From TrEMBL:
<protein>
    <submittedName>
        <fullName>Mutanase</fullName>
    </submittedName>
</protein>
<feature type="signal peptide">
    <location>
        <begin position="1"/>
        <end position="18"/>
    </location>
</feature>
<dbReference type="Pfam" id="PF03659">
    <property type="entry name" value="Glyco_hydro_71"/>
</dbReference>
<keyword id="KW-0732">Signal</keyword>
<dbReference type="InterPro" id="IPR005197">
    <property type="entry name" value="Glyco_hydro_71"/>
</dbReference>
<dbReference type="GO" id="GO:0051118">
    <property type="term" value="F:glucan endo-1,3-alpha-glucosidase activity"/>
</dbReference>
Amino acid sequence: MLAKNLFLSLLAVSPGMTQYKPPRPAASSEPQRVFAHFIVGNAYSMTPQHWETDIIEASKAHIDGFALNVAPQDDYTDRVLQTAYDAAERIGNFSLFISFDYGSGGPWPADRVINTINAYKGRRAQFHYHGKPLVSTFEGVANAGDWPRIKSATGCIFIPNWTSMGPEGIRGVLNEIDGAFSWDAWPVGAEDKNASSDLAWMNALAGKPYMMPVAPWFYTNLPQWNKNWLWRGDDMWHYRWQQVMELQPALVQILSWNDYGETHYIGPIYEPGIPDGAARYVQNHPHDAWRELLPYYIDSYRRNLMNPHSQLRAASPGFYNPKYPMSFTDKIVYWYRLNPSTAGSSEGTTGNNPAAGQRVLPPGQISQDRVFFSTFITQPSDVYAQIGGESPTFFRVKSPGINHFSVPFYGQRGPVRFGIMRNHQEVATATGPPISDQCIGGVVDWNAFVGSSG
């Protein structure tokens, strides 16, 4: 698309956004917070040192805490929760809350939910919202009737993910919930994610807090879970944060920190947590660089800035996160698939999820053969991307701050080089691994490789 060849400033209208300004939520005494979804089931052998490292890395990205997804079938949940809360309290200034997973292992018994909430609600690292310990879920609509008793016995504030009900369904349970979290973080089909579902959720909640999902990617191939599909990621990491800044939800949850099997992880790869069968497409696919621009996105959202770059620079250093102040240096963050979509077998991967009734499309129609990159620049500059030995594609950037670009493969192969040029000198460069027709095991690599000039 031609629009993809034009630079997109941070304040540009993102795909699918309405041209009008949505009504702002009522002012709240609670600061806006950003959490990352953390799969406790992937952390069974993480040491306290591993937890501390992850918490420090999340804090550097200005993430406020983890939403700890726990499943009823895991016998190590309490041990891991203890380790997580202990580590968060040692590090300090980092919050946790529990998200009960009703999807992966069946429903949670209500008494066990009560006991678990009560065991951690008094911990210093427990996140409180409007003075109450926050609790969430992954689905669990069939057990919605348990929650009046759970809330009464724990004093929690309840913001579930009951996405299967949809916004219309959630209107019927507003008396039982205190807000809602949507899992609708990816587009369906060969299009970019828009904010229409978020607006629908916000309208249905009638002023109650909305926790908005943000994700960078999605590909999964886990036969033991009957999962083998992808949804479009492409430019989404940039555009989705634009939508967050425009909609100003009460809370944000990043999907995810460590869900390796679905490739939307932004945390370090912890190999014992990779599910069986996913190592082929997770190992040697770091996503850490997706965190490098998060301080800019997150602080702009929290301050509801209309001109983020100038206003962030004018603010006192260390606003909101004095331990890890934001860096204002030229930077490049890039991501792309290492194989063209036609280079090998799809191994049955579908575009969209047919089990959810979605129309099946070729995966290469959804995940585009393009290189994606965002730059943070401090002054007007030229930026470029170059695939192999072909001529680079240049873009002129006039506005300081984050600008986003993409270029097509166009049959080009080889390493990908990126640069920021100013006054005929390169002020930042990065080189990513080669795009190649050589597919491991003959199967197209649908995961993204993410890197940066840092």
